[in-house]
Amino acid sequence: MTVTYHFVQCLGRGGFGEVYLAHRRTPDGLERKVAVKILRSDLPDPDLAMHRLADEARLLTILDHPAIVAALELTRIDDRVALVTEYIEGTDLSRYCSPKRRLPARVVVSAVAEVASALDCAFNTPSPETGKPMALVHRDIKPENVRISRHGEVKLLDFGIARSHEVGRRAKTTTGNLPFTPGYTAPEAFVALRQEPATDVFALGATAYRLLAGERFYEGVRLADQAALATAPDVFRRYLEARLAALPATQPSVVPLLRACLAYDPAHRPTAAALRERAEALAEVLPGPSLKAWARGQLEAEPRARGGEPRRARSSRPTRPACARSGCRGRRPSAVAVRGAHGGAAAAASRSGGLGAVDPHAVALAGRGGGGARAAGGAVPVGRGGRWAGGAHRGDGADGGGLVPRRAVGGLVSP
To answer: What's the whole-model pTM score?
Structure first.
């Protein structure tokens, strides 16, 4: 018995794989739209990527929250490991990060409350291994990983580099490297090489700032200089106040909330639970449309995802999606039919994807969770002049995950 996937459209491409809109059809004829994250076939370390995807699926099956996208299946499609999640018809927040497309303050604050609620769930959900709160850190909060549905639902995506000390992981971060997202990184991640729940709160504050201001919190600041700011608390605080002063004058009531989230000291930031309560209370008194009313007015009026009913392939032989073969750039490939295993562990397809065997315990998963379109990228050296030990500086605060070598921190230059 197999589940058939008809690929309709490529939604995005990241460092480890591509995400597609597909139609999932069960043997008894039930069909629904899903998002499918498929690992790339040309990865230099396919086992690491496979383990990371399995770790993401496992974490997400533990979580159960309306603001966390639901995972349906971890399987093999065309001999490539894939995570299948619910498809959220709508848009991610990266669409509203320019000065000409800023969201109403009430909508932004409401979205912050929903994401904070999801982070609170990730922190307090008991670990199935220890029974203690997971204290899960997402480590990749940014506009691209927050999606709003046509009905005003908010969903947090992409737990690919999330970490909890109470839940074991099969994928291991390379020794000396720290995953983070340039432009949304809290000072302690640079200085103390520490990421904790308060680090996610900072990233959520930086996300809210970008949505309200139409530009990044670290706009125009190179990665090396972001790290340098982290070593100088007083300079960072002056920088924060200057950035808050640059916000549109129509949003003064939001400034204290942002100031709290973006505090230099993680101990001075609100917990996710406190942030949810504070944001909910603020959203009640802000003028403008509610989140649901805005979504109905803006998103329901827009065209739905292209593709309509998928075209069946002429052959039932498993076929790699055209977008996966050529590299996804957001275009719609021809809809093709590929087969995955019902319940998870699929037999290998006739063509090898180079991923090796999948541990049945890692793939036989179903439940709640989420996926997304990006994962951490390569090493980003930071240090004096943007260089460290002969490595050229890359990254200017643009979105996308990265890794900062631990050895680089000692060479940072205070502003």
So the answer is: 0.75
